[in-house]
Write a structure and sequence with these properties.
By secondary structure, the chain is α/β, with parallel strands linked by helices. The chain has 2 domains: about 1-145, Nucleotidyltransferase, domain 5 (2-Layer Sandwich); about 195-375, Nucleotidyltransferase, domain 5, CATH 3.30.420. The protein is built from 15 helices and 14 strands. The strands form 2 sheets. Strands 5-4-3-2-1-6-8-7 form an 8-stranded mixed sheet, with helices on both faces. Strands 11-10-9-12-14-13 form a 6-stranded mixed sheet, sandwiched between helices. Helix 6 (about 180-195) crosses helix 15 (about 380-395). The two termini are about 15 Å apart.
């Protein structure tokens, strides 16, 4: 069964063509800088790579180009769009309406549109990907996989906010959580790797967006991102946790509008706000050269993660493993070392030589005397989306 996985972002489309149930990636690629003067188009098939620069005005043009690339005779992938059995779509926000993967119909699309206000940077583009795919891949079953679904297992004491109940009952204001597809993927691999029936795992997704999840016996019970994807850990341009009083002060005393404050906390804060740079590689290089702002930013970033590890170890009442994943979690030995330093009270000790190794497989990086395993697991949200899509079709 051939499943096309589409992750339609604000200015990009990531895609993978996957043969299921073998989980064999037949092709992968990305359309970047949609709507800008020059868009990048990348396609990888086996060892062969294709890249071109052209103007792509909107997501419909981008998806049409993806279909054209997959049908290109020289790619030797597809002879017809009808060979695609299913299209799995990443949808960021499912609200309370969706606790599992679903086949997309008119009612599902209506509910996704209702959730635009909860994820204005993501859901509209996810929705556009669905609409365009319906036109191009007419025979395929369209499937929605929600980032928030993995967190529907959280207990009410974890997902409720201490605000008047009417806001929960009438407006569905609660913790929803994000990066669920990634956390689900790596936690399942961690459980399989640990070969234990009962597990307490903390999954740490570190990329431009960051989140951390407490997972007991395969189910999420606590998560750092909440009603929207802005709180919790320090991120590339997002502040993460901040005292609400700061927001009121910016508006009431300094004269910023709510829209300006939102822009500041979402686009101008985090590592960018602390250093002037949002790319962790550049920040680490500057820190190595003695840049004090970058050194401090790395410490702040790691300190925030440490606090969450301590809290989640308490919530889990034990800890078998912590898992690092996503671009920064998988590749930054610097941040992993800062996070795991001085954590011996919780039984966390790194082996620096193992930590410094550059590998792409699942690997342990803790020392021999560490009571808690520290595991690096490369995430693959597209494979997880393909797996959930396949399972739904095969039911």
């Amino acid at each position: 069964m051939k499943i096309l996985v589409i992750n339609s972002g604000s200015s990009s489309i990531k895609f993978q063509l996957i043969e299921m149930p073998e989980k064999k990636v037949l092709a992968s690629g990305m359309v970047e800088r949609i709507g800008l003067d020059q868009s990048n188009v990348k396609l990888k098939v086996g060892e062969k790579s294709f890249e071109q620069v052209k103007e792509i005005s909107n997501h419909e043009q981008g998806l049409e180009l993806v279909a054209k690339l997959l049908l290109e005779p020289s790619a030797e992938l597809l002879k017809s769009a009808d060979e695609i059995d299913a299209v799995g779509h990443r949808v960021v926000h499912g609200g309370s309406a969706f606790s599992k993967t679903v086949v997309i119909d008119q009612e599902v699309k209506r509910k996704i549109k209702e959730l635009f206000s909860l994820a204005p940077l993501h859901n509209p583009h996810n929705f556009k990907g669905i609409e365009v795919s319906e036109k191009i891949f007419k025979r395929a079953t369209q499937i929605a996989v929600f980032d928030t679904a993995f967190f529907q297992s959280m207990p009410e004491e974890a997902f409720r906010y201490a605000i008047p109940e009417r806001f929960y009952k009438e407006n569905q204001i609660r913790t929803y959580g994000f990066h669920g597809t990634s956390h689900k993927y790596v936690s399942e691999h961690a459980i399989e790797y640990l070969k234990k029936d009962q597990t307490n795992i903390i999954s740490i997704h570190l990329g431009n967006g960051c989140s951390i999840t407490a997972i007991k016996n395969g189910k999420s019970i606590e998560h750092s991102l909440g009603f929207g994807p802005m709180n919790g850990l320090v991120m590339g341009t997002r502040s993460g946790d901040i005292d609400q009083s700061v927001i009121f002060y910016l508006i009431d005393e300094l004269g910023y509008s709510s829209a300006q404050v939102k822009e500041i906390l979402q686009e101008e804060s985090g590592m960018l706000g602390l250093t002037g740079y949002s790319d962790i590689r550049e920040i680490e290089a500057k820190a190595a050269d003695g840049d004090q702002k970058c050194i401090l930013a790395l410490k702040i970033n790691a300190y925030r993660v440490k606090k969450y590890i301590g809290a989640y170890a308490a919530v889990l009442n034990g800890l078998d493993a912590i898992v690092f994943t996503a671009g920064i979690g998988e590749n930054s030995d610097v941040l992993r070392n800062l996070i795991c330093s001085d954590m011996d009270y919780l039984g966390i000790n790194l082996d620096l030589d193992k930590n410094n190794q550059r590998r792409k497989d699942i690997r342990e990086i803790q020392s021999d005397n560490s009571a808690v395993k520290v595991i690096v697991i490369p995430t693959n949200e597209e494979i997880e989306i393909a797996k959930q899509s396949y399972q739904l079709i095969r039911q």
